Amino acid sequence: MYLRVQFKQILFTITIFVITNEYLKVVKGDEDKKSIEDDDTLFIFPEFDYVESSKNEIAFKEWEAACSQTPTCLGQEPMNKLRCIRKCISPSCYNEIYSFDELEEGEIDIRFQSFKGCLAQRLHKRRL
User: Fold this and answer.
1) Residues 90-120, buried b or exposed e (16+ Cβ, 10 A)?
2) Out of 2, 7, 46, 95, which could bridge 99 as a Cys pair, Cβ 3.0 to 4.6 Å?
3) What is the Rg, in whole angstroms, of the alpha carbon atoms belonging to the chain?
4) pLDDT of residue 125
5) What number of other Cβ atoms are within 10 A of residue 60's Cβ?
6) Residue 17: its pLDDT value, please?
7) How much of the chain, in percent, has pLDDT values that exceed 70?
8) Cα-Cα-Cα-Cα dihedral of 38, 39, 44, 49, to 10°?
9) Cα–Cα dist 26/29, whole Å
10) pLDDT tens by residue, 47-84
11) Beta carbons of 46 and 97 less than 8 angstroms apart
12) How far apart are CA 41 and CA 47, in angstroms?
């Protein structure tokens, strides 16, 4: 029993040491690591402002519903169907935002708002 308590205390001390050490690396900066600007994992994509309004959301949902019923998109696997719907909604916006790095299964779509912004911008230009 006494050894078990000592082991837990040692394990706790090591855990605190590791967490503190990692915190200091973040706060002070680790000279061996590259800065975020030099990091190859930084994901850059075209960004379009999107104003979320009921009018914009209703219009987008209508486009989405219509495209999901096209023969091309029907019967597709979920990820392929999503790509198909977005290509149907706006091929030019899809190409600009997704074509260089296709959306993958399980990926969080951080570009979706930009896609809707691109669509809103294109639709606005058509009205002028």
Assistant:
1) beebbebbbeeeebeeeeeeebeebbbbbbb
2) 95
3) 24
4) 72
5) 18
6) 46
7) 66
8) -80
9) 5
10) 888 888 998 899 899 999 999 999 999 999 999 999 99
11) yes
12) 18
Maximum Cα–Cα distance for the chain, whole Å? 80
Q: What does residue 73 show for φ and ψ, rounded to 5 degrees?
A: -90, -25
As given in the structure block, the two tokens for residue 5 are: 């308590």
- What span, in angstroms and rounded, lies between the C-alpha atoms of 72 and 31? 52
- Cα–Cα distance between 125 and 128 in angstroms, integer? 5
Enter the tokens of residue 126: 């058509």
> Does this model's pTM top 0.90?
no
Residue appearing with tokens 């190859």: 40
Residue 50's contacts (CB-CB under 8 Å, 6 or more residues apart) are 56, 113, 114, 116, 117, 120
Output the six-digit token pair for 42: 């930084």
